[in-house]
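Structure (tokenized):
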């Protein structure tokens, strides 16, 4: 770098855990090239915004955020760089709409960031204004050889595969993150050992389709078992799997390995077979429920969570009723429920009409949220009177006199620090005496 001062970089991350994990890779690559990171946006020479494109409100949130940066950029020199799925999705339409952006880089192009940012900073020093773009998707990029600069805490993300080949008709991810590719298990295990040595107690394996992981003769069941064998690691989680890749060996691995958490996030998306077909999900409702039964009978007390979309193209009241029925039958521990949001490029945008009125989508979401809230509360109340093991994470959000942590099934537990056991990264037993739809309340057993 031949810049006058060492540039200070501030990074902000939106979207899913893959973006959290990518931001850690970006930080590592930039630090290696001499950039310094700051938590303080007001002092930054470069602001990186890692973005999401999954629904229109994700786009809106980012535009609102960028307009905050406009004030900052009027006051002093600032390079604004947009990373992630929205950059990849909108490309130059994004810089046209928001001219304050200097650099756009998509999820497979982060190795180019040090040079793109250096060029942008040099140009700015000379009073020149030029835009930088790095938006190539790759079939091979897995950021091999780059050890993420991890956020502190108890959990370490490890991205084990990138991209997605499923092309669910509603989803933009295959267009923003490109083709599916899995990492070499040796480097994943090396990362797991490194995370353990640095004091992380939990590992979450990440991929858009994490259970279709495959590298030579390694499948996901073998991978998760090997990661869970890492000395010093207490818990291993994974997200998100697709129901199509759930062989018995994987369910057994989850059931039998003491370090693999008994929590499965199993996106359902819809309960009507006609809608599932239009979505391209490759399973019917009955197959999904059969999988749920298989999982529940092999992994007793498993915590099951899901994602559901309301108001997909042509969804009738009857289709929606099927989804409600499935939610009652599957008895999820919790669910993320979304209004369908048409995404550019997707199969649904090209082939189907987004014809469910926004108000109807909203009503369906509200009804399903209510149904699920009741089920979640009932399921959470089953823990009352039981002793559960918790991995301590941090102070509770509401009060610093309370600590919070997660059960093996990823349910939040809160307890008074006066009862002891609030050191992050430790395992503790708590007796559950009350429960809401969001939280279990614990005390000394
Ligand atoms: N790869 C993950 C999902 C990633 S997106 C998986 O397959 O499970 C997370 C969730 O966002 C999806 O499960 C889906 O429920 C929701 N989603 C994706 N595209 C959407 C869209 N166009 N409108 C509304 N919700 C969407
Ligand atoms: Fe999107 Fe489907 Fe791939 Fe998940 S599996 S990322 S919903 S295309
Ligand atoms: Fe969003 Fe991209 Fe993740 S679209 S949900 S940040 S993969």
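Design, position by position:
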């Amino acid at each position: 770098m031949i810049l006058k001062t060492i540039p200070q970089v501030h990074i902000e991350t939106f979207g899913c855990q893959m973006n959290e994990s990518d931001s850690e890779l970006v930080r590592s690559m930039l630090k290696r090239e001499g950039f310094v990171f700051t938590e303080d946006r007001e002092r930054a020479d470069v602001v990186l915004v890692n973005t999401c494109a999954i629904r229109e409100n994700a786009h809106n949130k980012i535009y609102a955020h960028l307009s905050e940066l406009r004030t900052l950029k009027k006051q002093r020199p600032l390079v604004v760089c947009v990373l992630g799925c929205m950059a990849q999705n909108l490309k130059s339409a994004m810089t046209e709409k928001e001219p304050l952006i200097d650099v756009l880089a998509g999820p497979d192009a982060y190795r180019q960031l040090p040079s793109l940012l250096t060029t942008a900073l040099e140009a700015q020093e000379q009073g020149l204004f030029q835009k930088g773009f790095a938006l190539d998707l790759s079939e091979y990029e897995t950021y091999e050889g780059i050890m993420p600069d991890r956020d502190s805490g108890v959990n370490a993300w490890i991205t084990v595969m990138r991209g997605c080949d499923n092309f669910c008709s509603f989803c933009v991810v295959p267009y923003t993150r490109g083709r599916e590719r899995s990492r070499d298990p040796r480097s994943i295990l090396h990362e797991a050992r490194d995370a353990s040595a640095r004091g992380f107690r939990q590992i979450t394996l990440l991929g858009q389709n994490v259970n279709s992981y495959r590298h030579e003769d390694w499948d996901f069941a073998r991978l998760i078992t090997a990661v869970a064998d890492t000395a010093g690691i207490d818990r291993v989680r994974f997200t998100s799997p697709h129901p199509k890749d759930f062989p018995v060996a994987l369910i057994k691995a989850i059931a039998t390995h003491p370090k693999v958490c008994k929590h499965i996030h199993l996106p359902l998306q819809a309960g009507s077979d006609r809608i599932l077909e239009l979505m391209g999900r490759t399973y019917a409702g009955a197959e999904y429920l059969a999988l749920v039964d298989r999982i529940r009978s092999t992994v007793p007390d498993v915590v099951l969570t899901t994602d559901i979309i309301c108001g997909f193209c042509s969804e009738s009241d009857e289709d929606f009723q099927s989804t409600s029925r499935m939610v009652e039958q599957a008895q999820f521990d919790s669910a993320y429920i979304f209004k369908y949001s048409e995404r550019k490029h997707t199969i649904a945008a090209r082939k189907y009409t987004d014809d469910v009125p926004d108000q109807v989508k909203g009503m369906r979401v509200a009804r399903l949220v209510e149904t699920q809230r009741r089920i979640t509360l009932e399921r959470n109340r089953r823990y009352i009177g039981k002793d559960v093991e918790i991995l301590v994470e941090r102070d509770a959000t509401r009060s610093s006199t309370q600590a919070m942590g997660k059960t093996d099934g990823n349910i939040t537990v809160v307890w008074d620090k006066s009862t002891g056991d609030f050191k992050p990264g430790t395992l503790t037993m708590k007796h559950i005496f009350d429960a809401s739809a969001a939280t279990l309340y614990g005390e000394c057993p």
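Reviewer-requested clarification: The chain has a mean pLDDT of 96. The longest strand covers residues 387-395.
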